[in-house]
Specification:
The chain is of the alpha+beta class. It is built from 9 helices and 5 strands. Helices cover 42% and strands 15% of the residues.
């Protein structure tokens, strides 16, 4: 049986360690232990944190994709603890998103990835987004066009152009995610890209790029000579 955290030396307890040495001094399991609070009769909170990390191979990105039901499969983590963990992970995701919420000017595909990676990388379904730009490639706004299932989402070219015209955009960049992690464009990805490009040419609205996002990387049509 593991020792309870209250049986540890004071300087080794996660909360006290955080107060004395700062958040960076704690391991991932110790940070999770603070969220989990107390353990069970058989496990300490740190043990629960280690077990939780173990099911995602110690990958925090994978941890962020777990559902409440997934978290509750671990003995000792009930609804309250699962909700606390999920809320903390969502706050972390939103903080990352807030840091890149507004990039004043798009200079590369990396700038686009920095905007959409926090939005799309953890999703288990596909979403299709549009970035509207002025003539200086400065961001006017962004919007989610559609949301689909695991393997696809509907893309309405007319709606893209309608919204681009309404916000007086001179250029657009479209982006969607592949929950499978496969960054290779599908045939339908290539076809819809060409349709958007041709429609934009008629409206004098340039399609500057199309990004496919996975949990760790991205594919740029422009960088790969696909536009």
């Amino acid at each position: 049986m593991s020792l309870k955290i209250t049986d540890w030396a004071v300087e080794d307890r996660p909360r006290e360690k955080l107060l004395q040495k700062g958040t960076s001094s704690l391991s991932d399991a110790e940070l999770l232990a603070i969220l989990i609070s107390s353990g069970t009769k058989d496990k300490s909170a740190v043990d629960l944190g280690r077990e939780l990390l173990g099911i995602v191979n110690n990958n925090l990105n994978s941890l962020g994709k777990l559902t409440i039901s997934d978290l509750k499969k671990i003995h000792g983590i009930g609804t309250a603890r699962a909700v606390t963990i999920a809320a903390a992970l969502e706050l972390g995701r939103r903080r990352k998103l807030a840091e890149v919420e507004y990039i004043p000017q798009i200079r590369s595909s990396k700038d686009v990835s920095d905007i959409f990676q926090p939005l799309l990388s953890d999703l288990l379904h596909e979403e299709f987004w549009i970035l509207f730009l002025n003539r200086s490639n400065k961001v006017i706004s962004k919007m989610k066009l559609s949301q689909g299932g695991i393997s696809g989402t509907v893309t309405d070219v007319r709606m893209i152009m309608k919204n681009a015209i309404e916000c007086l955009a001179s250029g657009i960049i479209v982006c969607h995610n592949h929950p499978s992690g496969n960054l290779n464009p599908s045939e339908s990805d290539s076809k819809i890209t060409q349709k958007i490009k041709e429609a934009g040419n008629l409206m004098d609205i340039q399609l500057l790029d199309h990004l496919i996002i996975s949990d760790k990387d991205y594919y740029s049509f422009a960088d790969n000579g696909m536009l």
